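Record 1 of the preview.
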Amino acid sequence: MRTATLFLPPQLSNRFAPVWRRNLLVWRKLAIASVLGNIADPLLYMLGLGYGLGSLVGDIGGMKYIEFIGTGMVCQSAMFTASFEGMYSAFSRMHVQRTWEGIINAPIALDDVVLAEWIWCASKSVLSTAAILAVVMALGYGHTWLALWILPLGFLVGLVFGAFGLVMNALAPGYDFFTYFFTLVLTPMLLFSGVYFPVDQMPAALASVANLLPLKHAIDLARPLMTGNIPPDIPLHIAVLAAYAIAAYYAALVLTRRRLLQ
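->
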């Protein structure tokens, strides 16, 4: 494939839908284990830190600490679910099982396969978002219709981090490569985006960096919604998340074309 061809805009069609459905049908066989795996870690953190540290910290911004951290965990769960799917699961289908190779030998283009994987990452993020949100509500928080808007927000977060995951998938020689992304990207983002403590409590320089992180913008939308308030600067937050998602998706598409079609 010529270098110029690699950078063409996405060549898309509705043929991505059967590929997305294929992923759904495979996932349904392991749905219970998958959902439990996606929610167990954030749920344990939310309960352990929410009730443990919460008894020492008290309220933050008018929210009990377990509600504060629960909102962050909703976004964190969407981030990790999409990232894991875009890396480990997609790598298995692309490289180990060679499922992608079989699909693109049919009348389905690679661009459609990448789009289907991207949308599937976001779809799984909605499932994990809904599960964590249900737990938060079961604990007595988030009883407002505005909290339902966190579900489409989970989809948007899934698009962002699913695209990041697909970028890493296109670069990875093996599963161990993904550790770099978790250590150097996801962990700092988790710590500095306001999941566990307010960003405005950090030094000004770190707070400025945090304001550039996509997870921070997601949490800035989710936290007011959880308390029944309309978030400020909605267009700004959505624009930032959409820009990250589109840019990362295009990078993932170009890198995947280079890996599989050259």
